[in-house]
Batch of 2 targets.
Target 1
Amino acid sequence: MRPLLILVFCSATTLGADALRFADVDAWSTWDMPYGLVEFGDAGQLQLVKYRKDINAVANAPLFTHGTRSRGEAVAGGIWKAGSNPDAAERTIDGDPATFWQAAPNDALDDWFVQVDLGRAVLAKEIRLTFPDKEGARPFRQFSVFTATGITSDPLKDVFIYRPVYFTTRPNEATSIAIPLSFDLLDTAQVVDRNLDIEPADIANFRLVQYINFTVEDFDPEGALAEIEVIAVGDNVSLGTLNRGIVLDGLTARGNEGILDADMNTGNAIIPTAYEGRVRSWQEQGTWFYIDLGATFWLDELFIYVVSPREGTVGSLAGPPRGFKFLHSDGTRLTNSELPTPEAFDFATLIDQPDLAIGQDYGGRGIRYLRYAFAPRRVRYLFWHPHTTQNWASRWYEMMLFSPGYPAQVVLRSPFINLGEAAGDGRPKVISNLSWDADLPPGTRIELRSRSGNTQGAVYTFHNKIGEVITEEKWLSSPKVLRGPVDTTVVVSEDWDEWSEEYTFSGEAFKSQSPRRFMQLEMILSTDDPQVAPEVTALSIEYEDALLWGVRGRIEPRNAQPNEDTRFTYSVLPASNPEDLGFDLMRFDLPTVASDIDVQIGGATVEPSFIDIRTDSLHIGLPFSVTSDSVQISFTTRVVQNATLFGLDLG
């Protein structure tokens, strides 16, 4: 008859339970969150930011800042300039149609204007004007409206080229006017997916705008303007990429961070080198760029603004784009990839732009403004490359991305959590379970993982005086006046485990090593429907004081004949710190009734305070608490099946 295998399990039962809870803005704010994608509700709940369509870009203009030539590097949107009565100009963008701006009647007509700065470039569809109509404040009768992209034509001054989009042809009496927008140069709008219920003409009217100029053309003492609104395609997903993601340039496609900032005075340069004999491929030339958006988004539109020769300060080397491809990935990994990306992801074609569609002369200008609509896709990574490097010499100033709603997946990480510090005693804790309270509409989910360890390490980043990262050796060898700050980043040490399996329900037992001094959580919020998103009200970590730093169990013999009395010795090997309380209770889970109990502590036989023998368990009370001595319990019992588990809980 073959002997049966014996298994062993040993754990230290703990004392009173406690919990660390994340349930308000202060607690959640300690987590690492992708920039601009998470916000807090009125009750402190954690929720994702929804990307909108058809927005009034004036309403949140003050939330955006940009660099200027004359006013500094962080100028907020709002009123850029008002020639007359500037103190009242803010009323035209306050969202209240009951307030209004009027020019001072004694000012020269040339000063009767208001200029609005949207704080960033937007893809606009329409400008809406609202006028009051009451005694002393009537709609302006004669006026013009101009827009500017924000590209300055002077390297030292803020000089914008305003182009007209509306002017009155007869005295105006309307209290509201809608001004449709379109580019004054050739543009293109394409519907990528044939099954979409979108006509190209429906998305063909648009214009890139940052500044709006409302100018009164005739003296009008009662004339007044209540509101200026700019209806834009939507919130631009590209904004924030530089804070939460990564942009990598190929050798001959440089400066691509500049196309993601909604700043029309920064951009890229796609200028492959010409070689005699043969055309080098985009791989050989390094004509590509790669974007990690920092989270996975639902995307359904992409817009590119390509500058023309001598537009702003760009010079003459600025041709129209030729044929190219945009590839996209949701982050699905591959074992290897031919693309020059940091990691291997499964990329698919998002846009395949033929050369014939945009590479013709078109009166010497070429198509410069490209808008693409497609079915919503989950996108984390974008990769661009041309079909060929021949005849490429193009500069892009903006690439905008638009979404139909909430991000598809956002990953958040807690700080390194020291439960001993939270409890005030500095001791390792036994983490019992994780629980959360969340609103999960259909199609949404929360994924939670954990890891834990006892020690931490540090990584040091050295800077020179101007902020550049340098090596430690160079920093140490530099004169003190040339040394910059040293940043310290706390990292996990070798004793940390890997990220656990996903927790599948609230209250599930902790899946990482325990007891441990430190732990960290990763929470993934995701949705299959961009119109809904998960919302987390609270997250709790339940923990208890550890009786011991650690404990191991061993049983001998490891094999026994089935259904025969066998003498076993169960050895308990504790690992402790001076502050550990130790254990004096032992509960064994056994396959059958035990008999002939013998107890030794540190190799010496002792008399237990009690022995309670049951049909499937054995309870023993020790005469004193044990912290470091080994404990051996010998008993006789039978095993009846293979892989029998002898469990032990300490208390």
Target 2
Amino acid sequence: MSSEITTMDTAAIIEITTNENSEQINLDENEIITISNVSDPEINSIHESIGSAINDASIIRIDPDKKLTKHIIACLIFAVYTFIVMAIAIIIVCLTYPKQILYPLENNANPTAVAVADFNHDNYSDIAVVNYGSNNIYIFLGSINGIFSLVTIYSTGIGSNPHGITIGDFNNDHILDIIAVTAGTNEVILAQGYGNGTFGNETSYTTGYNFNPYAVAVGYFNGDNWLDIAIAIYQGDHIEILLKTC
């Protein structure tokens, strides 16, 4: 015996084939249930043999709205997940982004260059700043939390207008010294370090009248293990090399 049941909501046709002499769907006797759906292209026809007896024939309604509901739930879950990930990323950036700290100098200091090194052997970087307008050098000592303290101000002379600075051990005593060039007085100034963040015993060298030295660097130019000095001469359009021999 064969019967058809049509559900108008889903346009599905369910055909149940049973033993003609039995009112019970008994799959031990090879009854077959066929489901055809003409409205959903994803389901054409399903033929399935069921391996247990069903006393009361039941019709399962296939609701196409369930599929849409699952998609909506999936989209909502994805949106919530994306929001959480973005919120966490923003929090991490806010907590780790470098914070700006300002260290004021005197009025019209006009800083032109900085140099960084460990001046007092505490394994924290310190800063030396040359100020073109106020004719001096500021020494800031660093600490474990990244905070710097102004400890010393060294004058380079009235009208000296220091413009460049660098750091190095110029007398091979394993203590860092400072080299600065002054555009106003056309000099190279060497200040010897004492290992505690302070400097003194300054020595100056003249570069030439109105040369305006603007930048300075050091290196071992002739391989004698004594630091030598290279100076950029702004007005003279050349560089000047000072070789240290002892």
